[in-house]
UniProtKB/TrEMBL annotation:
Name this polypeptide is given: D-alanine--D-alanine ligase
One Pfam family, short name: Dala_Dala_lig_N
Record organism: Petrocella atlantisensis
InterPro entries: ATP-grasp, ATP_grasp_subdomain_1, D-Ala_lig_Van_CS, D_ala_D_ala, Dala_Dala_lig_C, Dala_Dala_lig_N, PreATP-grasp_dom_sf
Organism placement in taxonomy: Bacteria, Bacillati, Bacillota, Clostridia, Lachnospirales
A biological process term (GO) from this entry: regulation of cell shape
UniProt: Mg(2+) 1 binding residues: D297, E311
Name of the coding gene: ddl
List of residues binding Mg(2+) 2: E311, N313
Length: 351
């Protein structure tokens, strides 16, 4: 018997376009003999629409012209997707939801809360893990007791930002260069490097466009590496991949628009360092109460060889160039098998 699955993509975040690419992987590798799939796209304005033309409509953008609203109901007794056709209302009973959403309102606990209310199993982390991991400031607070090194940082709120005070604080506590990051944004959106007071101010103003809370972090000179984790209470970590950025740092353009940026699926490093990263990734995933999947990012500092935690992504990208599915595939798990496993983890976690 087929399972009824709702796949959601798009969303109101700055990562809307990345979500549109990620969802294509799920639709391509889901076995139509196992799943009855309904696809729902959320526009940038927040409108929920039924996408009946599949991948073709998503690629062309035709889905945004859909005349059929479709939304998940919070009623736990119905567990349904409500489809509003001209001829009347249609209820699609839902077994599991795959929220292929990155960033705010998708990866931050918002839609996870709706699904918890509706008592519908869903792929990925729950409300707490999603919310904490989306907020870089609070992630640091949760990870701190693990004794895993993190970049030193200063938090800045838009409403209380004082340029002179912050410039003095950065100069005294962190030194230049520093990285400026919106606390609640992914795909390196709004991230800038500052080398002095003038560029710091400019970077903060840019970051405030995306979030009222911003982190200023010390610059870690080192290699950027990533580890995929999968599981609920029994968690496994992949090998460690490495990012080779074509630009000064791995920002949005470097990640998605520069073909010279490359990824290595099994990075060259001492075995002890590899194991330390894998163990740290599992520990961090556990600390935020993670479920299903996450990608945990680190630096390996050039001078010391120390492992430095960067951030955790609770619904990492699934695009053609995304590290998470490639790292899992390198472990001998095909993308179809990965999706099947993630769906089963979602169902198991709801029991």
């Amino acid at each position: 018997m087929k399972q009824n699955v709702v796949v959601i993509f798009g969303g109101q975040s700055t990562e809307h376009d990345i979500s549109k690419k990620s969802v294509l992987t799920f639709l391509q590798y889901m076995d139509e003999n196992c799943y009855e799939v309904k696809v729902v796209g959320i526009t940038k304005e927040g409108k929920w629409l039924l996408v009946e033309g599949g991948k073709e409509d998503i690629l062309s953008g035709k889905w945004e012209k859909s005349k059929v609203p479709a939304m998940l109901l919070p009623d736990a007794t119905l567990k349904s997707l409500l489809i509003h056709r001209e001829k009347g209302l249609e209820y699609f009973k839902v077994d599991v939801v795959i929220p292929v959403l990155h960033g705010l309102y998708g990866e931050d606990g918002s839609i996870q809360g709706l699904l918890k209310l509706a008592k519908i199993p869903f792929v990925g982390c729950g409300v707490l893990a999603s919310a904490v991991s989306m907020d870089k400031f609070y992630t640091k607070l949760v990870v701190e007791p693990l004794a895993i090194r993190q970049a030193r940082y200063i938090g800045v709120y838009k409403e209380s930002y004082n340029r002179e005070v912050i410039e003095e604080e950065v100069a005294n506590e962190l030194g230049y260069p520093v990285f400026v990051k919106p606390s609640n944004a992914g795909s390196s959106i709004g991230v800038s490097k500052a080398v002095d007071g003038a560029t710091l101010h400019e970077a903060l103003l840019n970051a405030f466009i995306h979030d009222r809370k911003v982190l200023i972090e010390e610059h870690i000179q080192g290699r950027e590496v990533e580890c995929a984790v999968i599981g609920n209470l029994e968690v496994k970590a992949s090998d460690v991949g490495e990012i080779l950025s074509a630009d000064d740092f791995y920002d949005f353009d470097s990640k998605y628009n520069n073909p010279e940026s490359k990824t290595i699926l099994s990075a060259d490093m001492p075995e002890a360092t590899r194991q330390r990263i894998r163990e740290a990734a599992i520990a961090i995933f556990g600390a935020v109460d993670g479920r299903g999947l996450s990608r945990v990012d680190f630096f390996i500092e050039d001078l010391t060889g120390e492992v430095v935690f960067n951030e955790i992504n609770t619904f990492p990208g699934f695009t053609d160039i995304s590290m998470y599915p490639m790292l899992i595939e390198a472990e001998g798990i095909t993308r179809s098998e990965l999706i099947d496993h993630l769906i089963q983890l979602a169902i198991d976690d709801c029991i």
